[in-house]
Design a protein that fits this description.
alpha/beta; 4-stranded mixed sheet
Length: 189
C-alpha cells in the first residue's frame, strides 16, 4: 500500500514537518462513461471511504490526544480537496482528479507516484510533464495486477500474467449488476 512509502521521521526537524500522503480520486465527470457507472459511488462517498480506511490503519491517538482535523476546500474554484491532519504531523490529502495528470501536474512538492502495471505509461507521461515544468521527476512504484479469484495459490491471489485475467473494478461492477438483476427477477416472480 502506498501509505507505507512515507519516510519515518529521523530527527527533530523531521518531526516538525508535515508528512503528506496525497490520494488522487477520479472526479465524477471522468467516470460518467464507465461501464456500469450507476454502481459507482460519487466522489464524496469515495473520498469518505478512502479517508475512513486510512484513518482506521493510522489513527493511533490515545486518551488526551486530539482527533485529526478535517478541512474541505476547493482548488481554483472547482477541484475538491479534503485534508485530514494528525497531531503527529501526518496529513492525508484527498484531491479530485479532473484530467489524466491530477495533482502530479499541479503540485511540485509530490515525490512519488503509485500506479498499476497497466498504467505504467501514465507514470512516464507524468514525469515528462513534470520535466517540461522544470520539476523533479517522481519516484514511480508499480503495484502488480492480481488475477481473478480462480487463480489462487495457498489462498493468496496470483499475480496476473496478462491483463485479460486481472481483477478489475469493471468486472466487480459487472458481477454486482448481474446480482442486482437476479435479485430483481426473483422479487418480480
Amino acid at each position: 500500500m502506498s501509505l507505507f512509502l512515507l519516510e519515518p521521521a529521523t530527527d527533530q526537524a523531521d518531526h516538525a514537518r508535515t508528512q503528506t500522503l496525497t490520494v488522487g480520486i477520479s472526479g465524477d465527470e471522468l467516470l460518467k462513461n464507465k461501464e456500469y457507472g450507476d454502481l459507482l459511488e460519487n466522489w464524496n462517498e469515495r473520498q469518505h471511504n478512502i479517508s475512513a480506511f486510512v484513518l482506521a490503519i493510522t489513527n493511533f491517538h490515545g486518551p488526551g490526544q486530539a482527533p485529526p482535523t478535517v478541512q474541505s476546500t476547493m482548488i481554483d474554484g472547482h477541484t475538491r480537496r479534503v485534508e485530514t491532519k494528525f497531531e503527529s504531523g501526518f496529513m492525508l490529502d484527498c484531491v479530485e482528479i479532473s484530467d489524466p495528470f491530477g495533482p502530479t501536474a499541479t503540485d511540485p512538492s509530490l515525490t512519488a507516484l503509485v500506479i498499476s502495471q497497466e498504467t505504467w505509461r501514465g507514470g512516464v507521461a507524468v514525469n515528462e510533464k513534470r520535466k517540461e515544468k522544470g520539476w523533479t521527476a517522481l519516484d514511480v512504484y508499480t503495484v502488480e495486477v492480481l488475477s481473478l479469484e480462480d487463480d489462487m495459490k495457498n489462498g493468496i491471489p496470483v499475480v496476473a500474467k496478462n491483463f485479460a485475467a486481472k481483477i478489475s473494478s469493471t468486472e466487480i461492477r459487472r458481477h454486482l449488476d448481474q446480482k442486482r438483476l437476479r435479485t430483481n427477477a426473483t422479487a418480480s416472480s
